[in-house]
C-alpha cells in the first residue's frame, strides 16, 4: 500500500467560455484566480486555476475553456461531482447567495450524515458544498464571501462508474480505506491527508458512458510532497501493471498520468514548486504566464485570447 498520497491536489475540467468561467469561480464562489496561463498542448486555450490564497494543493480547481466546445454528456466513467468544504452552519448563506447570483440546480440534501448543497456550474458541471466543522484550512479572504462562510478547499470528488470494485481496490492501494457505504455509494478516505481526503464511488451498472465536453471533469489529481515521492508512486503503479506516463513538467508541479479501471484519468502531482514560482503571492493570477516553449506566441495570444474581465 502506498503512503505517499496526501489527498487531492487539483481537479481539471472543461468549459466553453473563459470569461463566464472566471466570473463563476471568482465572483459567485469567491475563490482566487491563482494562475492565468495556457494549455500546454493547445496554447490558444487558457488554463485557469482557482484556489485559496496560495493555490494550496487540495484547493485548486482548474479549467480548459475551449471556445465553441460541445457540451459534455454525463454518465459513467467520470467524476460526476466535485465537492467543496464550507464551515458548519453556512449552507443557508450559500443558498441565499446562489439565489441572488442565479446559480442553477441548487438542492439541499444529506449524505453520509453531512449536510450538502448541490449546484451546477455554467456548463452543467456537478458541484456541491459540504459542511465540515473539522476543516481548519484558511479561506481566501478577498473573494467577496465573508471569512466565516468562505470555501476552505475540496472536500471530495464523487465518481460514477459501471463497476466500482476495481477502482476501490486501486484507491486502497493508493492508501485510502473504505469508511462507509450507503446503497450503491462507497466512501473511501485517507487518514492524515491535506483535508481533501474523500473519494465517493457510485456504481451505476445500467448507465451510459460519459462523453467529454464542456462541463466535464478532464482528470483528477492526487498530491505527493515532492518528485522523489512521485517517482516512488510511479514505480509502484507500474509494478502493479498500470501504464503510467513519464514525469511531465507543468511549471507549477510535476505530473504523471494513468487511466483507472473505471475510465477516470488520474494524475499524481507534486506540491512543489507551487504557484509563486513566477509571480509574487500578492499578485497571483494577474499576468498571463506562458510555458517556455510558448513564449514566442505571446504577442498573438495577448491579442487573441478572450478578456477575462468585463
UniProtKB/TrEMBL annotation:
One Pfam short name: Glyoxalase
Database matches in InterPro entries: Extradiol_RC_dioxygenase, Glyas_Bleomycin-R_OHBP_Dase, Glyas_Fos-R_dOase_dom, VOC_core
Domain VOC: 7-132, 153-271
Name of the protein: VOC family protein
Organism from which the protein derives: Mesorhizobium retamae
Taxonomy of the source species: Bacteria, Pseudomonadati, Pseudomonadota, Alphaproteobacteria, Hyphomicrobiales
Amino acid at each position: 500500500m502506498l503512503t505517499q498520497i496526501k489527498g487531492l491536489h487539483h481537479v481539471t475540467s472543461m468549459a466553453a467560455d473563459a470569461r463566464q468561467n472566471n466570473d463563476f469561480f471568482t465572483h459567485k464562489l469567491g475563490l482566487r484566480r491563482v494562475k492565468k496561463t495556457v494549455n500546454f498542448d493547445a496554447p490558444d486555450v487558457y488554463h485557469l486555476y482557482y484556489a485559496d490564497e496560495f493555490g494550496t494543493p487540495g484547493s485548486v480547481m482548474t479549467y480548459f475553456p475551449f471556445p465553441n466546445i460541445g457540451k459534455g454528456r454525463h454518465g459513467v466513467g467520470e467524476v460526476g461531482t466535485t465537492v467543496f468544504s464550507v464551515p458548519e452552519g453556512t449552507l443557508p448563506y450559500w443558498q441565499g447567495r446562489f439565489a441572488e447570483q442565479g446559480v442553477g440546480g441548487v438542492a439541499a440534501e444529506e449524505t453520509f450524515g453531512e449536510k450538502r448543497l448541490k449546484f451546477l456550474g455554467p456548463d452543467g458541471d456537478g458541484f456541491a458544498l459540504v459542511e465540515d466543522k473539522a476543516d481548519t484550512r484558511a479561506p481566501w479572504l478577498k473573494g467577496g464571501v465573508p471569512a466565516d462562510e468562505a470555501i476552505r478547499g475540496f472536500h471530495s470528488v464523487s465518481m460514477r462508474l459501471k463497476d466500482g470494485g476495481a477502482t476501490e481496490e486501486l484507491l486502497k492501494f493508493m492508501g485510502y480505506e473504505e469508511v462507509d457505504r450507503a446503497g450503491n455509494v462507497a466512501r473511501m478516505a485517507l487518514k492524515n491527508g491535506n483535508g481533501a481526503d474523500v473519494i465517493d464511488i457510485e456504481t451505476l451498472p445500467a448507465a451510459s458512458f460519459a462523453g467529454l465536453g464542456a462541463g466535464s471533469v478532464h482528470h483528477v489529481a492526487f498530491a505527493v510532497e515532492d518528485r522523489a515521492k512521485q517517482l516512488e508512486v510511479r514505480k509502484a503503479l507500474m509494478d502493479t501493471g498500470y501504464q503510467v506516463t513519464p514525469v511531465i513538467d507543468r511549471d507549477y508541479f510535476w505530473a504523471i498520468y494513468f487511466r483507472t479501471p473505471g475510465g477516470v484519468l488520474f494524475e499524481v502531482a507534486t506540491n512543489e514548486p507551487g504557484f509563486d514560482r513566477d509571480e509574487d503571492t500578492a499578485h497571483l493570477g494577474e499576468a498571463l504566464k506562458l510555458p517556455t516553449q510558448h513564449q514566442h506566441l505571446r504577442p498573438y495570444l495577448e491579442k487573441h485570447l478572450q478578456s477575462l474581465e468585463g
